[in-house]
């Protein structure tokens, strides 16, 4: 037993990149004393030695860690998501008591969080799944935090999380998202939107580069300029930085020496898998996930490299006008991606019984996290004006923005198709926009086909009821049971 008994008001388990930075962030705030624990003690020792200013209280065992924490004990787990999280929870439950709080700050799948919350609740201990975004830098200086869990745990946890969260326009980027898995669900959607945002930016860069012949450094200037307008965001800002970077070894733009195969850690795929289960079209996010998958298929890409492209050369007559068209296409497609992401939040909240304040979610994404952007204020305003808004892109501000952008968007998608430049996120977002606003969709024909081969029935536009045409008989129509 150490001499640390019950002196810490908060503990961190897992001291890799995220945990050590979060622990330092906690320790830097007035009133916090932070207990730290890592499975292998070398890491604890390393963090302790490197940051004497933090006043950490180290523990070598879970029992010692529990004894170091004042009651109700509050500990944030920052370990490898999955089996690592379950292993730590199993150990903490043995040494914690009813009323204590275990927070999982890792990137857990929300259904795992629902399962864990249910199991831990039976011990009387509170379990909170909290999505934390912002990477290493955010963890240290202020992330965006999306906690779920019970109202009781929020009472203790709220002030602590508010003290370490990023601050945007004077407000901490944290809110009690909803119960059990709501926080990790919203973090998952954040990451899905992040995938779409990154893919759209990448497509914009590619089109400008191949359409105008500008260098990465020149395109960096364009992104820096865009960052002063309605596209202002962390991702646009860092894009300019990446494009401006020169490789020390070759003297080439770094972007030209990076292998063009994008990796993924799975949260984008979760967003799409969950959307499929909920029946929500998140096509922009899905295309972004698939674009990464396609990029990472070297054998297929090599085999397809000789397939023919457009026969005519593609030229951009007015480079400045083209760049402006791409900017508008990017903004319009971004609106679609966020609208789709919020649709998924609404559907998830309905399915899992969460009361999620959509405007508050947009607010806590304004700082700390990867998708932080000016534009999120417009989303908060849209939901404040109309809490029952059925689709974000129909809110007046976004309707106007889309009206101002849609002709540019179409020109860009046409140009990309004619030039043979892949623009899956731009074009699928435009297709979504046109699909949603269409007066009639060919879904009527799909219903006819379904009725033909499977007697799946259809509804009519001119009268109530469910109908089936007797396709293999005399093709008369009969009233039928609705089988969808
Ligand atoms: N990296 C990011 O930018 C980022 C951003 C947001 C969220 N996250 C999430 O934050 C969490 C931590 O991320 P990270 O990159 O700092 O670390 P990580 O590489 O995901 O995980 C390493 C940590 O997990 C511990 N661990 C693994 N299995 C364990 C087990 N069975 N029992 C106890 N501890 C175990 C390791 O302990 P040992 O030292 O003993 O091996 C180490 O402390 C993850 O869930 C990650 O998805 C990361």
TrEMBL record:
InterPro entries: 6-PGluconate_DH-like_C_sf (IPR008927), 6PGD_dom2 (IPR013328), 6PGDH_C (IPR006114), 6PGDH_Gnd/GntZ (IPR006113), 6PGDH_NADP-bd (IPR006115), NAD(P)-bd_dom_sf (IPR036291), Pgluconate_DH (IPR006183)
Enzyme Commission code: 1.1.1.44
The keyword NADP appears for this protein: yes
Pfam families assigned to the protein according to its UniProt record, in alphabetical order: 6PGD, NAD_binding_2
Domain 6-phosphogluconate dehydrogenase C-terminal: from-to ranges: 183-472
Coiled coil, from the record: none
UniProt-listed NCBIfam families: gnd, PRK09287.1
Oligomeric and partner information: Homodimer.
UniProt family annotation: Belongs to the 6-phosphogluconate dehydrogenase family.
Chain's role: Catalyzes the oxidative decarboxylation of 6-phosphogluconate to ribulose 5-phosphate and CO(2), with concomitant reduction of NADP to NADPH.
Name under which the protein is recorded: 6-phosphogluconate dehydrogenase, decarboxylating
Native species: Protaetiibacter mangrovi
Record gene name: gndA
């Amino acid at each position: 037993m150490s001499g640390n008994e019950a002196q810490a008001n908060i503990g961190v388990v897992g001291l890799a990149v995220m945990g050590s930075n979060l622990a330092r962030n906690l320790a830097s705030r007035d009133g916090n004393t932070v207990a730290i624990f890592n499975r292998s003690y070398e890491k604890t020792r390393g963090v302790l030695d490197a940051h004497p200013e933090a006043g950490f209280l180290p523990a070598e065992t879970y029992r010692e860690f529990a004894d170091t924490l004042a009651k109700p004990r509050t500990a944030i787990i920052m370990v490898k998501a999955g089996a690592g999280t379950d292993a730590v929870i199993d150990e903490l439950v043995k040494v914690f008591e009813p009323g204590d709080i275990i927070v999982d700050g890792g990137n857990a799948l929300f259904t795992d969080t629902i399962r864990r919350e249910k199991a831990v609740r039976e011990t009387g201990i509170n379990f909170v799944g909290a999505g934390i975004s912002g990477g290493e830098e955010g963890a240290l200086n202020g992330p965006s935090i999306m906690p779920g869990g019970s109202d009781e745990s929020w009472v203790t946890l709220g002030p602590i999380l508010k003290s370490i969260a990023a601050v945007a326009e004077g407000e901490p980027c944290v809110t009690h998202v909803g119960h059990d898995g709501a926080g990790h669900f919203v973090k998952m959607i954040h990451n899905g939107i992040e995938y779409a945002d990154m893919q759209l930016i990448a497509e914009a860069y590619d089109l400008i580069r191949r359409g105008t012949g500008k260098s990465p450094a020149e395109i960096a200037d364009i992104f820096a300029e865009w960052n002063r307008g309605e596209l202002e965001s962390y991702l646009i800002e860092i894009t300019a930085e990446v494009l401006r970077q020169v490789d020390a070894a070759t003297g080439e733009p770094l972007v030209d020496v990076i292998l063009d195969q994008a990796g993924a850690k799975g949260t984008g795929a979760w967003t799409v898998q969950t959307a499929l289960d909920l029946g929500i079209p998140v096509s922009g996010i899905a295309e972004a996930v698939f674009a990464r998958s396609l990029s990472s298929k070297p054998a297929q890409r090599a085999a397809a490299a000789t397939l023919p492209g457009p026969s005519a050369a593609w030229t951009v007559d007015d480079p400045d006008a083209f760049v402006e068209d791409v900017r508008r296409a990017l903004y319009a497609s971004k609106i679609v991606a966020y609208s789709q992401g919020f649709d998924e939040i609404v559907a998830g909240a309905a399915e899992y019984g969460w009361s999620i304040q959509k405007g508050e979610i947009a607010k806590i994404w304004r700082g700390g996290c990867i998708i932080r952007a000016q534009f999120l204020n417009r989303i908060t305003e849209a939901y404040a004006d109309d809490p029952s808004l059925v689709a974000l892109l129909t809110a007046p501000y976004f309707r106007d923005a889309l009206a101002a952008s849609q002709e540019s968007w179409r020109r860009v998608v046409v140009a990309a198709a004619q030039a043979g430049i892949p623009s899956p996120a731009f074009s699928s977002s435009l297709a979504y926009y046109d699909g949603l606003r269409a007066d009639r969709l060919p879904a009527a024909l799909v219903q006819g086909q379904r009725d033909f081969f499977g007697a799946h029935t259809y509804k009519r536009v001119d009268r109530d009821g469910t109908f089936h045409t007797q396709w293999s008989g005399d093709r008369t129509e009969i009233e039928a049971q609705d089988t969808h």
